[in-house]
Amino acid sequence: MYLVESKGGAIVCMLVSLLFLGTWPAVMTLLERRGRLPQHTYLDYTLTNLLAAVIIAFTFGQISNTPPNFLSQLSQDNWPSVLFAMAGGVVLSVGNLSTQYAWAFVGLSVVEVITSSITVVIGTTLNYFLDDKINKAGILFPGVGCFLIAVCLGSAVHSSNTADNKAKLNEFSSDYKDAAQGISLSTLKATSEVNSKDLENGSGPANKAKAGTAVFLIELEKRRSIKVFGKSTLIGLSITFFAGVCFSLFSPAFNLATNDQWHTLKKGVPHLTVYTAFFYFSISCFVIAIILNITFLYHPVLNLPKSSLRAYLGDWNGRGWAFLAGFLCGFGNGLQFMGGQAAGYAAADAVQALPLVSTFWGVVLFGEYRKSSRRTYMLLGSMLFMFIAAVAVLMASSGHRK
After folding, report:
1. Over the stretch 318-354, which tens digit does the pLDDT of each residue have?
2. pTM assigned to the model
3. Where are the domains of the chain?
4. Residue 258 contacts residue 272 (beta carbons within 8 Å)
5. CA–CA separation, 12 vs 261, rounded Å?
6. Which candidate, 84, 47, 44, 76, places its Cα nearest to that of 318?
7. 207 in helix, strand or coil?
8. Quick one: DSSP state of residue 301?
9. Is 208 in a helix, a strand, or coil?
10. Membrane-spanning regions, if any (predicted)?
11. Paired residues of 193 in beta bridges
């Protein structure tokens, strides 16, 4: 198997992982905004997410003669560690599934901020003690503090942006009511259209309402698969905080699987390699996702329309994007674990600064925070500043596993 043996190599793994893990949520959000059912998207995503783990296992896990290799570990008596890895996969799968619904209610940027911050505050603290304190506490915990502040700022950004959107819609209250009844928005479009490439619809140049306007918000609501108008923002925030707790547990579970800090393995049985653990981790992630999403096809939540396996198999609209999201998430998680095995899982949680990437995509692709108030912009800038500080501090705390 291949081992990342240097601090520099671990940091490279973290940075690439940060890019991948910050991009796949944007791809999933893009499909939801185009109107594709989240159950269909997540089933596609799940397939390539597992395939990424298989590719990593049969390449990096078998790349050299350094024992133990991936295939040799499949027959070892290492089930206690396997169960820890699979438990991590379960909570990650549930967390990822939850965020797919939260993005529609709260927005890509704020959901990623809150879930990532909760992950760091809880998960990084657990990893610090599980890793026998190999990270520098005097540097690590100020970074955790930055993420905690970012949770508060992220909630404030959501509150401010929601107030901004309500104000925009109130200005066009009569038109909003007409739109909800399916009446044409031609009058409004005459004053708020722009010729541009419609990224969300996947079409070529088209007349499109300017991002941030009331017309844009109304048209988005009509097009997207998860309807959010008239629903309490507490629904989205509750789902977001639940997802954050799930995310905070998967990395410590994976840490226990690869390092056996609780001494559950029999004497002489080698620890799971990061590649073997990631394989089992992804298997459980896959199984849970398949069970939940097939259930949601026939018993949907949040007033989504019912679907079926036949409808899913015939839905090729956006399937390639969903496959891409699965690869990005799978390789992103694998790189995070490879870096964590070398430099400590607490430091590897620096990839939870992924909202830096997600916010970029949210603003560029989806027009989030366009035409918002100065207060919203100030809060957004402060939130991003805290994340920049946090990722730098957590990476500086990296130690080296002996």
Report:
1. 999 999 999 999 999 888 888 766 666 655 566 666 7
2. 0.81
3. 7-69+80-396
4. yes
5. 26
6. 44
7. strand
8. S
9. strand
10. 6-30, 42-61, 81-98, 105-126, 138-158, 232-254, 274-299, 320-339, 345-365, 377-396
11. 209
